[in-house]
Amino acid sequence: RCLEVLFLHKYSGRTDRGTPMMISTFYTLSTTLVAFAAGGRNNHGATLTMITIGTAMFAIGIAGNFYHHYLLAALRSSSSSRGNDAKKYAAPRGGLFSYVATPHYLFELIGWLGIAIVSNHLNVYLSVAGM
Asked: Alpha-carbon distance 75 to 70, whole Å?
């Protein structure tokens, strides 16, 4: 996630410090909850099949999230390369943008669902449901 923010995102304006701090705090708390729920061992009955499916979902979620953020970054850079200083909205194309308004968030949820399947803990499933 940090590499994506550093090298892929192109922001159109300034971002206040509160927003990234809130997002970082949310991810830190969620990660802490997952680590606490896991307890350092497989004590919640996750089978090898669940671990395999969850890991695959996590990998698909990360890859899909990155790809759709890449499409959004390319859209921003293509409008700025044409010399358009005026900010105009352009609907993204490619990937799943034809079917879902925000596929990068969809893939983020898929990744978190994969984490929940691997941990096989109610608190992690509730965290995913709350997203």
From this structure: 9
What does the alpha-carbon distance between residue 53 and residue 51 come to, in Å, rounded to a whole number?
6
- Report CA 5 to chain centroid distance, whole Å: 11
**Contact, 111 vs 61, CB < 8 A?**
yes
- Tokens for 17? 């410090």
Q: Residue 128 and residue 112: Cα distance in Å, rounded?
A: 6
Cα–Cα dist 58/87, whole Å: 35
**Taking the CA of residue 109 as centre, how many other CA atoms within 13 Å lie in the half-sphere pointing to its CB?**
10
Average pLDDT over residues 42-60: 87
Burial class (CB in 10 A: 0-12, 13-18, 19+), 128: middle
Note the pTM of the prediction, 2 decimals.
0.73
Residues 6 or more apart whose Cβ sits within 8 Å of residue 112? 30, 61, 127, 128, 131
Q: How far apart are CA 111 and CA 59, in angstroms?
A: 7
pLDDT digits (tens, 9 = 90+) for 17-39: 777 778 778 878 877 877 776 66
